[in-house]
Structure formats: structure tokens, C-alpha cells
Amino acid sequence: MNSSDEKLTKSFYDRISHSYDLIADSNEHVAREKGLAALAISEGETVLEIGYGTGHSLVTLAIAVGESGKVYGVDISDGMKKVSEKRVAEASLADRVELSVANTPPLPFEDNTFDVVSMSFTLELFPLEIIPEMLKEIRRVLKPDGRLGVVSMALPKDGDKDSVLEKTYKWMHQHFPHIVDCQPINAVGLLKEAGFEIKSEQTLDIWTMPVAALVGKSPS
Length: 220
Known about the structure:
This protein is α/β, with parallel strands linked by helices.
């Protein structure tokens, strides 16, 4: 993403941060929750959430890691950070959650820091040519045998046709990318190309559009 695109994206998410749950979360939460469950977070783990949005996943993750664990988050939007900080504080979990705002990649963390990295409806926001770089950064910050959870808009299975809604969605993304910013991606293929071993894969849908919920393992 060039600097102009980053500014537009940041401005867009800052504007919708307080209304995002009404706009999108009612559609996304089932897939997001199934993706988090598949990660099977253990007490004491260190977890990174990329694109934490309004903080629902942060609360789930912070409960899962317990008092001995830690959850970090990075997002492009200051507005989302404010909303998330409030949600985490209201859940009395602020002591185990640390949030930052940054344009990524790169990720502002040291090598081999995290047991788990989680992304829900975030990977597909990056331009296709940037996704391999993003996944390379995730591998860098994950510990050996670390887990990456991805929930993303997906391409139809071989032989399946796009629904009318998906055709419309793709057209909107092509012509108005700062409004309809997600794009269906081949998440399985992208993770494999980045060196992840696919440990679990679920196919879900949102309003007839396919969604992938994956867990990949980083190399030993």
C-alpha cells in the first residue's frame, strides 16, 4: 500500500470505528468466533491479533491466555484502538492486553515473539502483491511451530460459480476499493506458499459468499 492509500484506509476506519459493529460485526462474528475456537488458545500463551478492529477477538483471546498470558494487537486505526481499549477495560482485561497503531508490513515486533497470530477479515484487506510480504513478517514474529489463524473472504471452490452477491461485491471492490475494501482470496494457497502447514480448514459463508477459517503452523 502506498502512503496515499494508507492515509485513505486509516481515515476510513477512523470514521467508522464507532459504528463498525452495526455495519459488519453482525455478519462476521460467527465466522470470527469459529476461527478463534479452532486456534485452541492455551493459558500462558503470547498472542498477536493483526487488525483487531473493535476488540471482540481481543477479549476472547485475553480470557483464553489467562493471567499468565499476554495479548498484543496492531491496527491501522487510532479510532479502532480507542474503541478496543474501552471494550477491553470494561471486561477488566486491560492488564493482559497491549495495543498499538501502525501501518503494516513490517510488524513492529521482535523475531520469535508469539505462540499464535490471529487475523479475522484482515488478510484480504492487503493488496494481493503485499500479502506474501505480510505472511513472511508473520512467520518472522511467530515462534517455531507457532500457529496462524486466518478467517477471510474466500474464492469459490473449483466448479462453483460466484453468487450474484459475490459478483456485485467483486465489482464494488474493483471500482470503490476504499469503501468495499475486502477481496476474496485463496488463503489456503497463500499460506502454503508462505511455508505454513495447514492444520485445519473450515468453509463457511456470509450471505452466500464463501469464507475460509484456517489454522496454519509455522515451520519447526
